[in-house]
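4.2 Preliminary Data

To establish feasibility before requesting continued support, the project team ran the inverse folding procedure on a target of 172 residues. The structure was first converted into the token representation described in Section 3, and no sequence information of any kind was made available to the design step. The complete token record follows.
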């Protein structure tokens, strides 16, 4: 049995994006109930040398929607600097999921073998589409999704493992 590039990438992105959307919504509800300033929440870091919550959410989107767009364009670069409030981050996640849901599975599968590169200034790493998605994009995507969850959990948002996992694709 073969597994398609779409299943390996887009299906996984959607599962976790939907979970992140829910986690971020629960974070907003918790902040409101506890009187936590959402602007402060956006700036919260797990450690001083890590980037803040807002960057983590932006990176979840960048390593899902942005990764697919990067493969399509042949180049992927670091995420743009975005100055969004909490509602703006929620919309960004929702828009990314809607974009991915609109993709045609055959078009994504046809990207397999396509040459592309990660580019940061003069630094470049060449990839095939599938190697980029599986060895660079997905690990980064999960890292930033985990950090998003962890920041909210650290602040006291009532979250559990099932919140992180989201809707799993189970046999029917």
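Position-by-position output of the design step:
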């Amino acid at each position: 049995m073969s597994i398609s590039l779409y299943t390996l990438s887009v299906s996984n992105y959607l599962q976790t994006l939907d979970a992140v959307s829910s986690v971020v919504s629960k974070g907003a509800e918790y902040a409101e109930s506890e009187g936590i300033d959402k602007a402060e929440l956006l700036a919260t870091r797990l450690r001083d040398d890590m980037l803040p919550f807002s960057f983590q959410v932006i990176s979840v989107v960048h390593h899902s929607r942005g990764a697919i767009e990067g493969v399509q364009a042949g180049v992927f670069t670091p995420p743009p600097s975005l100055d969004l409030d909490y509602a703006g981050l929620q919309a960004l996640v929702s828009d990314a999921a809607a974009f991915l849901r609109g993709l045609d599975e055959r078009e994504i599968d046809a990207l397999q073998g396509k040459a592309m590169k990660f580019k940061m200034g003069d630094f470049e790493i060449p990839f095939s589409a599938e190697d980029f998605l599986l060895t660079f994009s997905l690990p980064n995507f999960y890292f930033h999704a985990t950090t998003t969850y962890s920041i909210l959990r650290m602040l006291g948002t009532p979250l559990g493992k099932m919140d992180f996992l989201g809707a799993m694709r189970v046999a029917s």
